[in-house]
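Please predict the structure of the following assembly.
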Amino acid sequence: MSKPSFVYVIYIAAPPEKVWQALTDPEMTEKYWFGFRVAAAGKPGDYMTARSPAGKEVHRDVILESDPPRRLSYAWQPLYDEMRSERPSRVTFELEPFKEQTKLTIVHDEFDEGSKIFGLISKGWPAVLSSMKSFLEIGRGLQPSWEGEVAKRAAEAAR
Amino acid sequence: MIDKAKFKPKTVYVIYITATPKEVWRALTDPAFTKQYFFGFAIDVEPKIGGAFRLLTPDGRVHVRGEVVDWEPPRRFASTWTVEGMKDFAELPECLVSYDIEPSGEAVKLTMMESHSWEVPEAILSGGRSGWPAILSSLKSVLETGKPVAMKMEGPPPDMIKAVQKALMEKAWLKDR
């Protein structure tokens, strides 16, 4: 079995500065990341933190790279009981400008073989980033029904 | 008609869109829509299984030709693809492109799969892997805002062209049969 990695690309009609803010400012993430407050504006060595809609801390992960508004990378180790056993994986965002718009690429890698978290993030990122695109283009995020594992994860995080 | 079971998904792209399944179906199958987000290509499709499927360039040439494999409005549309508009690519085996449309809360989950019947080299898949996110991001913007997103019009990457020529020389797909 090889180590899995997830790659997703989305084009957003907003400049990289806006996309950067949407990725790092909890006031913004709350509006499209299904109520989660994600703070990731720190320097390398600082922490990315995320809180569930119920206020529970669900991430406290070190920021690996931060080059606003081009490149952001942080570790990823959800603080839910069953997922703590996996070593941290790595999330990297690349923002490329094109005609006042942004090509956003996310690579989520460094998973252990057979990672359970990999299956969850593969479903989660397209929903989160589709919602971010809507938020930046039309001012409101998506409200997709929580699908399977994503729903379960949200429920656990809110507990 | 192709044997669907022989085709395995090699590229999958999922995007959520604030729209109804019918609106997404229309965006995928109506030429006035596809022209806005699909590099200016107009779809021309006979609305039935076994019907002819084509993508036409803005000046009316056939870029992609195929056959409708699934036609279930507004849930699933699949067709075979042969890229006739690019030198050498026309000689590759056809691939299968499918769209699945599922309601998801107030939004729609659109899943695109590009499936192949042979062990396609990664370099050949790279063209679709760079194109689909741009096309489907733009489709979402057209439905939500009325405007497409700007796209770089790039030809196929040089490595892709080389890989296509190599596959044609070796007739690589015959090995898998």
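Helices of chain A lie at 16-24, 26-32, 116-138, 148-158. DSSP finds four helices and seven strands in chain A.
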